[in-house]
Task: structure prediction
Amino acid sequence: MLKRYIEDAIINHFKELRQLVILVGPRQVGKTTLAKNLIPDLKQGVNYFNWDIAAHRKILLTQIFSGKVELKSGEKDVLVFDEIHKYPRWKNAIKGLFDKYEPNTHWIITGSAVLDVYRKGQDSLVGRSFNYHLCPLTVAELFETYRNKIFSLDTLLETEISKPDDETQNTFDSLLKFGGFPEPYLKKSDSFLRRWRATRLDKLINQDLASIEHLKHLALVEKLMFLLPERVGSPLSTNSLREDLEVHFATVKHWIGLLEKIFYGFAIYPYTVQSSRMLKKEAKWYLWDWTEIDNEGFRFENMVAVHLLKYVHYMNDLGIDELSLHYVRDKEKREADFLICRKRKPLLLVECKLHDITPSKSLSHFARILTTKNAIQLVRDDIDPITFRYDRIKVDVLPASSFLRELV
Result:
């Protein structure tokens, strides 16, 4: 059985912290499997409750939340509430249970939608919870290179990257083709991937989206989901989408926010500084399932985006660092695909190319403007690493598979 990369982190959380674990991530990424693995003695409807199971909903609503039946609360018990955010009053219910049983129990709340723990007409879970993101499989996770490793962005930037061996490159190629969701990746079947993807998209629209907001125009939201893969890798024009869908600007913006909330995709925003010629508004859109993208170059860029965001989430969730992921583009349309910052300070510029080993001119330009420590160009091919120098600017052209293996 595949052991996920944050399992040990959650086990350590239980040993050291009292806060409940809020485990979020895309549908079918493995949250339920991971949560169940963390229950020493799994008993359905006793220490594991899934809101999508009718019998569990009945127990929760008529017995547990009403206080008629006590929860199992022996020392060090793990209680899991799966997809509980679909219950409108879930925060009030969980807060009451947590405050009552917290000294003797560990808690896991999972969700395939972003769980807002702040007060919105309900009691707040702030101070009672920590978030953990479970992201799709990546090169580093499949090789388990994150284990017994000192995690630091500075250490990563000092790591020597070499030409990938066949196993590394083949793993990278399989991920690019079959995506990072465990089931289609492990099956490695084109026909299964197509069927799995159709089922997942249907559930995203008709279950996950419907559970967080009543929408009159689900067909138009579905059309929006078909349009977005074609726009991956470029600044997203809400106005262009508005024209295609023939709805108001604010409506499209709201729908995109909902699609991000249910983990269909995610936005990366431009990095800006005052009094600069950098783009300030339009985000770039990426999908958690990059196999929806036909264009090989944009699919590769999307895969790198997921790897980098997973690394950023991991560092932030575990309190190792305070990182953020952006892109850079100016009014002259020069662009660098990604920029990792620490507390808003630029540290690493990343450009993605399928085959080109000649450094993008934008990399050295933005490295000079932003005074970043490092600029790298990731190449999809299994090339030998090359270093270029432009005055005091250094640009490393690296094989993507070897670099991504050093993340998480």
